[in-house]
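One such shown below:
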Amino acid sequence: MTTRYAALLRGINVGGHKKVPMAELREVLTELGHRDVATYLQSGNAVFTGDSDDEKALAAALERAIEKRFGFGVDCLVRSGAYLSAVADACPFPAASLEGKQLHATFFSEPVDPERLASIDVSAHLPEECRLGDRVLYLYAPNGIGRSKLAEALAKPSLFKGVVATSRNWNTVVKLVELTRD
C-alpha cells in the first residue's frame, strides 16, 4: 500500500540554528526509499510517497537519518494526507473566512488529554480561542501568533511535557493537504 505523507520537522532553520537545507532534506527522504519527494517553505515541511503505514516508524527513521546526515537531532512527525484532510475538515473555526496567520494547528506526537489545558484560563484570552482535536490543537489568534497571549500560555514547556509538538499556520496546513492528496 502506498500512502502520501507530510513530514513535519520541529525547530529547524530558525534563527540560524539546526540548518537543514531543503535540497538535502529531499535527498535524505529519497535515500530512505521514499518517492515523489518535495519540500514546502524552509521551515521543515516535506511531502513524500511511502509504502509503510506506520507513521511513528517513518518519523523515527527520518529522525535517525537527519541526525546521521547533519549531526543533530530533530523531532519529526509524519502524518498521512488523509489525516491532514481530516484535520482541515474538523477545524472548529471558520478557516475559509480567516487569514492564514490568524489560525494555527499544533500537531502532537500522540493524543493529548484535555486535562493538560486545565491550568490555562482560556476565557481570559478572548477573543483568542483554542480547541483540541485528534493529535492537534487548533489556535485562533485574530492578531496573529506573534501577539497572542494564549499562544504564549500554551508554549509553557511543562504543558505538553513528553509530547512532541510542532505548529503550522493555516496556509501551510492547507498547502500540505493539497500536496498530500493521492
